[in-house]
Protein: Transcriptional regulator
Amino acid sequence: MYEKKTFPNLNCGLDLVGEVLYGKWKMRLLWFIHEGNLRPSELQRKIPDASRRVINIQLKELEAHELVVRKIYPVMPPKVEYSLTDFGKTLIPVIAAIGNWGDDHQDNLKRVIAKAYPQLD
Structure:
């Protein structure tokens, strides 16, 4: 697994949140788990652009940060499900607010993103 070579700066709330939520798919994983998509295969279907490996790495990081908990059922083949911890549930209103902000400003966001990626036009 990837090992960070520099220590994070944890001097303020934004640094702390960034350290825990940094990762392209983490907020979406938390949201989809909140919506009831608990199995890794369900999450993969919800985020088809993410590789299974990246989803697994980010789920492990969310688990290490105590935002999700993994339950392994003793069946063959093994069944794994993720759920939000009480701590993880506290992020859902924040993620919802960010999503609403994105919806409210999507025209402007699409315009500025298109400038950064001219090949999207």
Observations:
- The CA atoms of residues 113 and 120 lie 9 Å apart.
- DSSP finds seven helices and two strands in the chain.
- The first strand starts at residue 68 and ends at 73.
- The helical segments are 13-21, 26-34, 40-46, 52-64, 86-89, 92-104, 106-116.
